[in-house]
């Protein structure tokens, strides 16, 4: 507990991973989220989890985080499933990972632009 929050942490080499939740949250769920996230990051970075590799692959780490939690709701805690979703193996007819990321970014930008025109 720190300042009314439950904080679960894990250190891997020179990286520090933290998951925080309110004082009413279950510590085991938070620990499960942290374990799944760190497992997925380890799989995607091929067990070379250090600061330099993490910075070079920050997009993958953010996508892992997006697959784990959405708006404070836990979506997935299995590291293998998270890594598979992020790497794109589960997508049918998808291009490379970079192309997916760019196309997703363009689709999001297109949606925001369309919304701004409709206002």
TrEMBL record:
Query: Record's GO cellular component, any one?
Result: Golgi membrane
Q: Name one GO biological process term.
A: retrograde vesicle-mediated transport, Golgi to endoplasmic reticulum
Entry keyword set: Cytoplasm, Cytoplasmic vesicle, ER-Golgi transport, Golgi apparatus, Membrane, Protein transport, Transport
Predominant subcellular localization, coarse grouping: cytoplasm
Q: Where is this gene product found?
A: Cytoplasm; Golgi apparatus membrane; Cytoplasmic vesicle, COPI-coated vesicle membrane
Top-rank taxon: Eukaryota
Which sequence ranges are marked TM in the entry? Answer: none
Checking InterPro entries in the record gives: AP_mu_sigma_su, Coatomer_zeta, Longin-like_dom_sf
Write down a Pfam family by its short name: Clat_adaptor_s
Q: How does it sit in the membrane?
A: Peripheral membrane protein
Q: Does the keyword Transport apply?
A: yes
Keyword Membrane among record annotations: yes
Query: What region holds the AP complex mu/sigma subunit domain?
Result: 4-87
What's this chain's function? Answer: The zeta subunit may be involved in regulating the coat assembly and, hence, the rate of biosynthetic protein transport due to its association-dissociation properties with the coatomer complex.
On assembly, the entry states:
Oligomeric complex that consists of at least the alpha, beta, beta', gamma, delta, epsilon and zeta subunits.
**Its family?**
Belongs to the adaptor complexes small subunit family.
Provide the protein name: Coatomer subunit zeta
